[in-house]
Please model this.
Amino acid sequence: MRRISRITVAGAATASLALALSACGGTSTDSSSDSKGDKGLAIAYDVGGKGDQSFNDAAYAGLEEAKKEFGYQTADLEPTEGETDTDKQQRLESLAKQGYDPVIGIGYAYAPAVKEAAAKFPDTTFGIVDDSTVEAGNVADLVFSEEEASYLAGVAAAKSTKTDVVGFVGGVDIPLIHKFQAGFAQGVKDTDSKVKVISQYLTQTAEEGGFSSPDKGKTAAEGQIEKKADVVYAAAGLSGQGVIEAAAANKIWAIGVDSDQYRQEALTKYKDSILTSAMKDVAKAVYNLAKSVEDGKPETGIVRGDLKTGEVGLSNSNPKFADNTELQDAIKTAKEKIISGEIKVKSS
Model:
């Protein structure tokens, strides 16, 4: 075991506040900490922060699982509006200096910050979700085959549409979200070539609010609904809540993303309009990295979750989805063909 003593510490909110304040200071190059031993996993959220009912909340679930099992202090820090890579780097370095290990940046935007912080704290394990470019000896690049889950979402959409028009709403026009779109469109077309896919990205950059603006998501979905789309899939973080709201108001299907959005408390009043969610198990990836450090064998390099490992897939929470035998059979067949390699899913 990495830690000789562990102390269960209450008051995570207080700890987070203290860390947030210290992160505003200068950059540290000290890779040691007298408090190391009773502190464990720390995460720094992506755009949208905790409460997005999607990507960031999944990471928090992994943190909570690690905290419960290992009995150590954890920390989770929110992003700030208009922050720079330097701000992110200082946040990660503050966590490392105070003894947290591992330290995980939630989202591809943390890549430059993780790279710099990892170099200054070589004895700390860092992680980054949704990026495979850092390539450092003490960094785990936690990535997923989102296109595979999205392909299955496309199968579900093609089987569920009555108008032969479905929609895709991407938060930001970047390669990561292109994977969702490509897989979804391929799944639709392979299932029923007559079905039209309407695609739209909310913004060109994350700074413009593509992942954090439910109003933008709602407007985009309403535009697609006007064009007869009766199933809309959103890969847009917090903005996806607006897509789900528009679907519910217009009595069509929405497909959620990252977390099982049917079960998200904040979306309870819309859940009957959430057909399924294309999930990636960020919680498991976060927890597994924490466990690897706890076991003294830290994960490093690219750590991929896909259909074969069970870390991407579709949720079955909505009974109307789970009990549809024809739909479930189509999804099962597609899943088996992807895992066997018979179906090659595009990522762009």
About this structure: The chain is about 40% helix and 20% strand. Residues 1-36 have pLDDT under 50 and may be disordered. The first helix runs from residue 12 to 22. The CA atoms of residues 155 and 304 lie 23 Å apart.
